[in-house]
Amino acid sequence: MEQAPPDPERQLQPAPLEPLGCPDAGLGAAVGKEAAGAGEEDSGVDTMTHNNFWLKKIEISVSEAEKRTGRNAMNMQETYTAYLIETRSVEHTDGQSVLTDSLWRRYSEFELLRNYLLVYYPHIVVPPLPEKRAEFVWHKLSADNMDPDFVERRRIGLENFLLRIASHPILCRDKIFYLFLTQEGNWKETVNETGFQLKADSRLKALNATFRVKNPDKRFTDLKHYSDELQSVISHLLRVRARVADRLYGVYKVHGNYGRVFSEWSAIEKEMGDGLQSAGHHMDVYASSIDDILEDEEHYADQLKEYLFYAEALTVRTFSLKGMTTKLFGQETPEQREARIKVLEEQINEGEQQLKSKNLEGREFVKNAWADIERFKEQKNRDLKEALISYAVMQISMCKKGIQVWTNAKECFSKM
Amino acid sequence: MAGGPPKALQSTGPHSLRDMPHPLAGSSSEEAVGGDSTPSPDLLMARSFGDKDLILPNGGTPAGTSSPASSSSLLNRLQLDDDIDGETRDLFVIVDDPKKHVCTMETYITYRITTKSTRVEFDLPEYSVRRRYQDFDWLRSKLEESQPTHLIPPLPEKFVVKGVVDRFSEEFVETRRKALDKFLKRITDHPVLSFNEHFNVFLTAKDLNAYKKQGIALLTRMGESVKHVTGGYKLRTRPLEFAAIGDYLDTFALKLGTIDRIAQRIIKEEIEYLMELREYGPVYSTWSTLEGELAEPLEGVSACIGNCSTALEELTDDMTEDFLPVLREYILYSDSMKSVLKKRDQVQAEYEAKLEAVALRKEDRPKVPADVEKCQDRMECFNADLKADMERWQNNKRQDFRQLLMGMADKNIQYYEKCLMAWESIIPLLQEKQEAK
């Protein structure tokens, strides 16, 4: 993939940084997904070396999560989870200072990073963060933020988030992002110095202006429509999936009762005893196999969730696009209401001038935004297909396990 | 020993009655005598000796004048496991073709009962009659009455909760038909019960109601005699083996009850799972309408979930239709066994009471009176019959449960295989698209 074209929004953006190298968005994202799917502690470092040139320059992994207690701004005791981010440069032949680093960040800092990116790159679909609290989970799964399984899945999600930024042609060159990875102290202050909060406020105004858009670009209304629908269909899907998981859990666990009753029954039987006893054991195995199956499925749900949040991000994006357009035309409306024609003509001239330049700016914005959306679409198709494949593979392995257990049980029954 | 498929019965030729060929199927009349020659003469004698004493005081119909079986012959037969199904068999009964009758007073179902036999007790080689549940019920009480020492197989439950089960629904009638078929087969397989006169009447009589009316007077007298027996005797000690049977039955019934509840719960969970799946699949379809490139894979997943749902539904149906009824039968069986055990205890109690009475009068009469001896014989016969039936039952139970549980495992394997196929078939659909890109 080519280096991104010069950014027209440069004035909005801090100076790009070089060390992260030239990205290949697609492959980076794909590999990142693989690593996340594998779920191994160091997978990020070990498996991501093949044909991925930005990765040759730097590797990122969120390798550990740790529970910590500290004092917050109000000097109150609080418990949180910190994540260890490890970065390593692979190529160090040219004698550059080797970039090997590790530092701890907590979830709120990831949030800050994302908020900053949102403000500074309004035309980019910024990757979403994993959920702060577990949602759409089947009831057996703990909704506790400190639950080890949840922390682990979030660790994978956060790693995925960083990998997606790092593989984005534009975002990867952001200075704040770079500092996020490399500079532990003072990072927050640096972010705040960029004054992104102020911009965030003006962006909010733009958002509010949305409803006054006169001539919305059809592509964007379509996109808005699509992302709304996607959001609703994925959240529906996730909700139903959680219920399906609940029921499946029930079916398996109730089979576990056979284990106990077969074993009790076997005590009073002579010839049938042994067969019943061991069949009961297989029923126990069957019942407990569901825990792993559903734990695996949770990864699939996470993948879908990422796109649910992407869809949200997309909606916000289209809102701000409309906001931009509104700004352009907003200048015109008051003038038309003016009765004083002379002033009006003058102003119209002025307005037209302004409009021209704003239009230009707007078109540029739209073009870039659209390019990023195209990129996003491709990534989405690839990722979701992969997610579907891994889901199918999961189902296949569940079926195979089921066949295995029942075949074993049948063997026992046949000996009765 | 499930009945042949109902279709086979449309042609009532000798071979279509059972899938399994048997030596007597071909020429029934010639071998009619052979059917009766199974029991050895001395067994016959032993039997008739026992029978005389077994006849209840009311003089109810003598059970099986030609009844060949006793406990020892039973044991002999049981040892020949393979024989049970084919070679010594000379009586075949099938229940099929349920029909609904609507009268002004009531609506009911009758079932066709087709009998084929080479036994001399049957004048014709083949009979076909229609009976309703009531008639089965009559038969069962007659058997209980005339063969008090034997274990009578249970009938399916008579009452169904109104509103929950539609008595005339196809599924209910079919389940009941299977159970009734099983009931008659169990009697047919029994060396004593199958020779019972009432059973014969049930299978052959054109008008069963006439016989039923005859029986009423006897029944009332019978009831009194039972009351007489139960009146106040107290059992000293149950012999160990019967105590063990009693304990066994208690636990067995308890465990089966648990299994029944588990199975019902599983079916319930599966049905709920099915309902969720039915909603889950279409969501992928809905999603696919939003997408371009992803449309086909999503549609594939949706179809696949649909296939899995169908497989699950089959599994649930199989469990409801085949698994639960067998469990129920055995739960009811354990009740029948308990009631026979109770009767046995009564006979023993009666004997003990008489013995005690004699002991008190011992000085006057040194010899044990004949009626006490009779009573002892009666008890011993009862014990022998019951033991034999119990053993037979144990054997059947083992076979039945082996089959039942293997069937359950099979059904689950089939279910998973269907799902496996469905999911495997969409993998290429997902991958191909990716490579094409």
TrEMBL record, chain A:
GO CC, sorted alphabetically, is:
early endosome membrane; plasma membrane; SNARE complex
UniProt biased composition (Low complexity): 25-38
Indicate the family of this protein: Belongs to the sorting nexin family.
- What is the superkingdom listed in this entry's lineage? Eukaryota
Limits of the PX domain? 61-187
Name the CDD domains for this protein: BAR_SNX4, PX_SNX4
Name the keywords, alphabetized. Protein transport, Transport
Entry protein name = Sorting nexin 4
Pfam families xref list = PX
One MF term from GO for this chain?
A: phosphatidylinositol-3-phosphate binding
Q: Which residues form a coiled coil?
A: none
Q: Looking at the record, which segments are called Disordered?
A: 1-45
Against Gene3D superfamilies, the record matches this protein to: Arfaptin homology (AH) domain/BAR domain, Phox-like domain
State the Gene Ontology BP annotations.
Answer: positive regulation of autophagosome assembly; protein transport
From TrEMBL, chain B:
Annotated PX domain ranges read 89-210
Membrane-spanning parts: none
UniProt-listed CDD domains: BAR_SNX30, PX_SNX7_30_like
Please indicate which superkingdom the organism of origin belongs to: Eukaryota
Q: Which InterPro entries match?
A: AH/BAR_dom_sf (IPR027267), BAR_dom (IPR004148), PX_dom (IPR001683), PX_dom_sf (IPR036871), SNX30_BAR (IPR028649)
**Quaternary structure annotation from Swiss-Prot or TrEMBL:** Heterodimer; heterodimerizes with SNX4.
Tell me which SUPFAM superfamilies the record gives: BAR/IMD domain-like, PX domain
Q: Which family does it belong to?
A: Belongs to the sorting nexin family.
Question: What is the name of this protein?
Answer: Sorting nexin-30
Q: List the molecular function annotations (GO) for this entry.
A: phosphatidylinositol binding
- PROSITE patterns registered for this protein in UniProt: PX
* Gene name for this UniProt entry: SNX30
The record lists the organism as Piliocolobus tephrosceles (Ugandan red Colobus)
